[in-house]
Amino acid sequence: MRQPNPINSFLTAAEPEALFLLAAILFYLAGLLIGRVLKRRFKIGLGWTYQIFIVAAAVLIASDLFHFDFPGQRLVGMTALFFAAFPLNALLYRYFWPIFGYPGEQARVPPFLPQITTLLLIATAFFTSLSTFYGAAVPGLLAGSGLIAFVLGLALQDTLGNIFAGLGLQAGKSFRVGDWLIVDGKHVEVIEVNWRSTRLRNNDAASLDIPNNQLAKATIVNLYNPTPIHAARASVCVEYRIPPNHVKEALVQAALAARGVLSSPAPAAFLMNFDDSGIRYELKYWINDARRYPEISDIVRTNIWYELDRRTIPFSYPTRVVEMRTKKETEPTDQVVVLLQAQPLFADMEADQIQALAKSARHLRYGKGEKIIAQGDPGKSMYVLSSGIAQVTVERDGRASDLGELVSGECFGEISLLTGNPRTASVTAKSDCDIVEIDQSAMRDLLKQYPRLADHLSETLSTRRSVLETELANWKDDPEAAPISQTKESFLARMRQLFGL
């Protein structure tokens, strides 16, 4: 005779309440085991909400399995369905949002979008469970009362505005976490962007929460877009008597000596305006760490003060000076006399002749890069370089070449001055240059007073012209291009004709 199965006998004899309770415990333990595996092996963030979910789900499944009804059954079912949204949301955070780089600074979705999704998921679970177990119509709940809908609309107006403004800011990629911005004239760093506001932090480590709809209306300067390298500026006002290139050089040097200022792109200085009290300059320098902006700004401005002080470049002050000048003849300085005496062109001139020439000379200043004379232009003056360096260039057959440099003490333009011929070369200031100019009127007066001086000048011009033509021929690298022979007599004839001697 076949023996009866003890398990079947137990199930037949057991009360439904006991079977229901046993099944609920087994389902709970199974859910607990699954949750532990998901949390430890797959790193899914399950919290206390998962415990509530598996308890309610275990009770609900056991009651359906054994057809056991108990008071509050619908409430337990609603609880299970509602709390199922939380482990589902944890799965989204573990496997779905990382596809878009979230969380992290390189996220391709707005940082608050996962938060909004969580709220929508929880709200959907709530209304679905309410409809499933209590038969409540969701549209009726939301729109059953016009007054309630109106109140909710007013209450959520700012909230919805902040959400949509935040979505607009993120869609336009105006900024991201870690960027430094200028908002309302303040340097701030983006710390967090959530569904309601954007959290910022200034250089004083103070946090600011600005609602998204308010931030969307502001003018935002992103210092880190497209790269963290951005420019900063410093402004100074210097007296008029200081040559601009000297000031620019000092400002650039001050910036390069400052810690935190990049050497590439290089700093640059600009003359911005001629103010009443002085010339205003602006220094533009580049940095890549906006967090150190106050520190770097302080170092640059400190360096400017010391650099200008070392170069004896005074700052200007807001003062007005009324200066009364009387017309009087300017006496030649000893420096000009010494400069003219050193010129081979004037080697045979007497001291009083040099004094007369120096008396009529003009002092000119040319900045770096300025053209002093241009090849082919008519020439009615000659120049003596008092200080600085100038570059001599000549153009022939569409080709240009450098013939050399002129340094302090050298003269140029004398052939055009004494013969009236066009300029044979161009001369450009390679650095700031101080120049003494002697024009035809001064030379005419001198030659009429000392006619024999023309004989010596013509001989010197003939020699210098031959040297120049030889250099041009060598540069052209053409053996057939021989120097043009111009004798002392031809120069003397041209001078007499030009000056009416």
Overview of this structure, please?
It is a single chain. With 501 residues, this protein is an alpha+beta fold. It folds into 4 domains: 15-144, no CATH class; 160-222, SH3 type barrels (Roll); 230-310, 2-Layer Sandwich (Alpha-Beta Plaits); 334-499, Sandwich (Jelly Rolls), CATH 2.60.120.10. The protein is built from 18 helices and 16 strands. It has helices spanning 6-13, 16-40, 48-65, 73-83, 85-96, 113-134, 138-143, 146-155, 157-171, 212-217, 244-256, 293-310, 334-341, 351-360, 414-419, 440-449, 453-476, 488-499, and strands at residues 180-183, 186-193, 197-202, 207-211, 220-222, 230-238, 268-274, 279-287, 362-366, 371-373, 381-387, 390-396, 399-406, 411-412, 426-429, 433-439. The strands form 4 sheets. The chain has a 5-stranded antiparallel beta sheet with strand order 4-3-2-1-5. A 4-stranded antiparallel beta sheet has the order 9-16-11-14. Strand 2 and strand 3 (197-202) form a beta hairpin. Helix 5 packs antiparallel against helix 6, helix 11 packs across helix 12 (293-310) and helix 13 packs across helix 14. The longest helix has 25 residues, at 16-40. The chain is rod-shaped and about 145 Å long. Mean pLDDT is 78; it is low at 144-148, 327-331 and 478-485.
